[in-house]
Each structure stands twice: as structure tokens, then as C-alpha cells.
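S.,

As promised, the iron/sulfur cluster run. Input:
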Amino acid sequence: MDAAVQIAERDEAEQPEQPELYASWRKIHPKYQPGFFRRVRWIVTSVLLGLYYILPMLRWDRPGEMPDQAILFDLPGRKFYIFDLVIWPQEVFLLTFLLMAAAFGLFLMTALAGRVFCGYICFQTVWTDLFLWVEHWVEGPPRRRREWDAAPWSLRKIGIRLIKHGLWLLIGVATGGAFVFYFADAPTLLREFLNGTAPYAAWFTLGFLTLGTYVMAGFAREQVCIYMCPYSRFQGAMFDQETLVIAYDEKRGEPRISSRRQRREGSAGDCIDCKECVRVCPTGIDIRDGQQYQCITCAACVDACDSVMDRLRKPRGLVGYTSFDALTGVTPPRFRFRVWLYGALTLGALGAVMFHFLTRAPLELNVLRQRQPLYVALSDGSVRNGYTARLLNMTSQPQTYRLTVEGVKGASLHVEAAEAAADGSYRLRAESGEVVPYTVFVTQSEEFAKLGAQGDLPVQFKLTGLDPTGGSASYHSVFIRPR
Ligand code: SF4
Ligand code: SF4
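Predicted complex:
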């Protein structure tokens, strides 16, 4: 054999074995595990799903043509109605503060209790739980489900699969349906769906969300948490030594021995290597291998191990909530900087939103001066300026306002299409949520128009609700006179 070939073969033989970089997907069939944390998660799921489905159906008295809906995101009208609170297009900046409060609140929750959001609140977890429960109910426990997967197609298998996928799709339709009801009058839209006259956008959203729920909760499941959700990758940055995590107590559990005889003979740890904690895990990991980013802190393994410990008459908590400090036996008093920081930032963002709502006026007034002509010198020597006043009634009732003008001596007011009052002011009306433009003329009499130096004068328009709930507003402009 030629020397070059020998060298090439030797080099190839000496190459270190390449690790397998691709792991094919393995379907996980987690076991349903009752227990304390399972009950807590059912309660949280019921509350969250109950709110999600019921809120758009809640009725709330609204004036005029608006649907009597407690929570309504009126996209064509560009207004959000949340019970008595109306968020206007010019207040959309509040969304920034609300998103900041939500983000910092999530960071705070993570710093204190780890991925409790992922395990109990995240919609992916909530819907996956529901889908898994349906699967368990229709197909049976994991062993039976694996048998169904492996079984050849038969009438019975087709029937079982049809029931499961039908129920999954029903949940998907309910999910998408509830979502679109937040954007229109829910009972009307429901009738339109039933008689096939709903708008295309509503059909499209319903179809998209039905499919999204069906695929994400029925098929993608744990892969969303492991591969798609960016939060699982950076949540560790918010942890500190006292953050609550779910962990296996290695000191107590090891050496893990499953054989009863060996356990009686030697000094075995409390873990009997039954793998119940692995069987119930929705992401398919073994918590005994240490902290892993795949762990969504659902606590199913805690319930599983606690039930094993109960059977063995040993104390619970071999797998449980703990902190890194508790695991390493270190308990120095710590100043938890990030907890205080996230707390302060959350309160700051919420405070800004609260401050805005507590101090916002229920009325907005804008006045634009007419530029053509700049002023009109009338035949009796008086000078007139024209303005367009736009008022926005942000209360839930129709309002009547009193308009006056100040700053120009000898000025009189005239408002087109409005009622004049005996004191020279005018009565302007606006329905709830309505922006009403009024043409306003301010006229300075000859006597005052000729007084002093000629030139522009500051003028102030004042609008006051006749009803105290109407609020008040003012606007500064100029009154132009001939030079
Ligand atoms: S390791 Fe335990 S807490 Fe983490 S995902 Fe699995 S079952 Fe849930
Ligand atoms: S459930 Fe508990 S005893 Fe069983 S393997 Fe897991 S940690 Fe060990």
C-alpha cells in the first residue's frame, strides 16, 4: 500500500469520534400526576381560562351606538374600552408603560420564584395542559397512548383519533372565537358566525388562532418551551442565589438504589430510582441531573416524588422548591439588588400609568387660527379673527360646555351652529367620544381696536362643562390686528 494512503487511513482512524449533533424528535407522553401542585395549576388554569372566555361576554352600559360590552378593543374607532375606562388614540403611549410594567413584573416574578410564569400562567402551558388532559381522557395513560401510536390503523383507532383531534379543534375554535370577541360586539359577532355573515377578518383570525392552538398545544408542546421561546434561554440572567427553583436534594437522595435487597443491605439514599419524576415531566427531563433550561417549573415531579415518599413513609421534599443557597447550605443575609431593581421599575411604570389616569382631563380643546384672511377690518372699525375650535368629550355622557374668551379687551364672541347665552358666552355640545369642530369668531370693538399700539394680542379660550363631570380646558392663541 502506498505510504500516502497509509497515512490518510491512520489519520482517519485517529480522528476523535464526532458527537451526534442531531437528535430526532421523540414524542413525550407525560403521565398525569395528581397532587398539591397539580391542584394549584388546575385552579390557576380555570381562573385564567374562565376570565379569557367570559370577559368579552360581560355587558356594560355604554352610551349611543357603542356595543354594551365591558371590554372592547374598537379598532375602527381607535379606542379601547375597559369597563368605565376609555383609552383614546392619543393615549397609546400608555401601552409602552404597560408593556414595561409587564416585562419588569415578569423579571421580578422570575427573580423571586424562578420560571413560575412558565409553569403556571403561560398560555402555552395552560393550553398544553388542557390538550394533554383530553389526550389522557380519550386515549388513556402513557403506556396505552404509546400502544395506540404503534398500533396499525383500524376502525377503533380512527374513531379514537377523530374524537381526540375533534376535541382539540373544538378547544382551538373556542380559543380563536373568544379572541375575536374582544374586538367587536360579542353576541352580534357570534350570531354572524352562526349564520355565516361574519366579516372575512373575523373568519381569518378565528381560523388562524384555531390552527395555531391546535398545532402548538397538540403537536409542538414542549418544543415551544425548549426551542421556540426565547425566555427560557435568558431567564437564568434574572436568577440570584435565593431564587426559588425546583431541585433534587442530592445529599438526601444519593446513592439512589432501586433494589429492595440492596437498599436493606447498604446505606442507600432516599431515592429509589423509580423514575416517577421523569415519567410525569412534560419536557422529558430528569430533574436529578441538575438545573436544566428545559425545566418549566411545573412541579409535576414534586407531586410525583412526594407521592412516592408518602408510600415509603419518608418525609416529602426529596424533589421540591428550594434555592441555590439552601442547596449549598449557604445562608448569608443578602441584599437582593435585582429584586429591588425590578420591583422599583415595575412600580415606576405602573405609577406612571396610574398618575396619567388620575390626572387626565375628561375634555380636550384644540384651537386653530384661520390664516385666510389673517384678520378682517370691519366697516364699523372693529377687527375680527376667525378660529376653528375642536373639542373632544372623553366622558361617557353627552356634555354641554360654556365657551368664553379672555385676553382681548372689548372682545365679543360668535360661534356658528351654537347657542348664545345672555352673558356673551356660548353653549357647545359634544356626544360622548365625539370630536366636534366649531367655527368661532372673536371681534374686538372699534374703541379698543384703536387703543394703544397696534399689534397681536394673546387670547385664551376657556371651555367649562356645565356638568361637573364634563371637566374644563383652555387654549392659548393670538388675536391679530392691523399694523
Ligand atoms: S423537571 Fe419537574 S418541574 Fe421541571 S418541567 Fe419536568 S416535571 Fe416540571
Ligand atoms: S420520583 Fe423521587 S424517588 Fe423516584 S426517581 Fe424521582 S427522585 Fe427518585
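DSSP finds 18 helices and 15 strands in the chain. The chain has a mean pLDDT of 89.

- D.
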